[in-house]
Amino acid sequence: MAAKQPPPLMKKHSQTDLVSRLKTRKILGVGGEDDDGEVHRSKISQVLGNEIKFAVREPLGLRVWQLVSAVMFSGVAIMALAFPDQLFDAIFEEESVSSKTPIRLYGGALLSIALIMWNALYTAEKAIIRWSLLAEACYFAVQFLVTTVSLAESSRIATGAVLLMVSRALFILISIYYYYQVGRRPKKV
């Protein structure tokens, strides 16, 4: 008995047929726009995600500001931990503080914020950068309010405290500026 010969191989035309290719891509879910308006080239890019979406268009001076913030937080934290009397005297121009514990606790909290600032300096993720800038702005706002209330209660205005308040107000504005600049959507080209 003779074996039946298979039919001759026929070439598929799906690669050259535009309608067939579009139908295949639609079934696979590639080539169309997602909610963010991005067009996925392959199913793999959909599954793995598109890292361009998370890339930040950094405003001019952002990394310098992050470095200045991290150094400033670290410096004040170390000073509060090691030399609490001198830090209190520099700000409020008083002889000494009754207890060093609150100032050292303040230094420990600042050291924790400094760690966040150092880590945010080395990341490229938009969300982490924005959260660190928001935390910084909130810290400066709280410090501004506490210093204002302390000066109002003591009815004595020290030069160091006024300088601190002005610098904190400036730091709030800079942090909020970068927070909104990092959060802006890039312009479509």
From TrEMBL:
<feature type="transmembrane region" description="Helical">
    <location>
        <begin position="103"/>
        <end position="121"/>
    </location>
</feature>
<feature type="transmembrane region" description="Helical">
    <location>
        <begin position="64"/>
        <end position="83"/>
    </location>
</feature>
<keyword id="KW-0472">Membrane</keyword>
<dbReference type="InterPro" id="IPR028266">
    <property type="entry name" value="TP53I11"/>
</dbReference>
<feature type="transmembrane region" description="Helical">
    <location>
        <begin position="133"/>
        <end position="151"/>
    </location>
</feature>
<keyword id="KW-0812">Transmembrane</keyword>
<dbReference type="Pfam" id="PF14936">
    <property type="entry name" value="p53-inducible11"/>
</dbReference>
<protein>
    <recommendedName>
        <fullName>Tumor protein p53-inducible protein 11</fullName>
    </recommendedName>
</protein>
<keyword id="KW-1133">Transmembrane helix</keyword>
<dbReference type="GO" id="GO:0016020">
    <property type="term" value="C:membrane"/>
</dbReference>
<keyword id="KW-0597">Phosphoprotein</keyword>
<feature type="transmembrane region" description="Helical">
    <location>
        <begin position="157"/>
        <end position="180"/>
    </location>
</feature>
